[in-house]
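Comment thread on ticket #2218

A.B. wrote:
> Attaching the input chain for the structure job we discussed in standup.
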Amino acid sequence: MEVLKILSGPILGAFIGFGTNYLAIKMLFHPYKKIKIAGIALPFTPGIIPKRKSQIAKSVGEVVGNELFTKKDIQNFLLSEQIPKKLSDNFVHSLKNNDNNIKENLDFLVNEERYMLLKDKVKDIITLKLQNAILDIDLGEVITKEAELIVKEKVTNPLIKMFLSDNLISSFSVSIANNIENFIQKDGRDIIGNIIENEINNLENTKISTIFEKTSLDEDKMYMLVSKIYKNLIIEESDKFLEGFNIAEIVEEKINNMDLYELEKMILKIMKKELNAVVSLGGILGFLIGLFNILVVL
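C.D. wrote:
> Ran it. Output below, let me know if you need it in another format.
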């Protein structure tokens, strides 16, 4: 009986210490809303976290955005070795195994009307470039040289060769060249355009995998090219992109939009062991204080 009386103090102290710490932790989250009795709000309602949710969200957002996960951290992550490597691997793999033709792939990007406009524009650009390139050539000089070579090679009769002098061949060649140039200026665009259109039609119906296979592209160089383009894009454009990417605001908004129950669940998931340790420590300290009190009395 005397032993029970002696131990009652430490046991009571342990119970009080355990209970008060447990209650204090519960009061961090509960109640979720303010409780009123006869129009008077009870103290400590709502709980500390529900009451200061917006301030907590702002503080956590600032810590995460300014200290833990900065824009520089995002840039370093995007430029880390595994990201461009994985991107290059996936890109080359998709090309090698893409059994859709060019038109089918472009259908994902543009509608039919837009595709036809783009196709016509490409045809017109290539046609005009070829037409101008042909007109820029000195056809008279080219035809003259070729004509002289053919005449000297094919014509063996000395008498005929005497009449077919270089000046005579040149005069005929210039006349022919002028006629060809006039023809190209007048009708060349339509002829070249039809040829280009047929080539585009053939190309648009070719599978991507077939193009990759026939062109015998160097995979290692493709990896390097994709990786280089990606890295240059991140280095040059990431600052502009990240200007509108405010991590602190995103975290703050995310926490503010969370249900209080979900917020409590998240915090307990992170700190469950630590909070349980605080509760247990309260019981231990209460027991020790009770024990110390007995020693003092004795």
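A.B. wrote:
> Thanks. Noting for the ticket: The chain has a mean pLDDT of 76.
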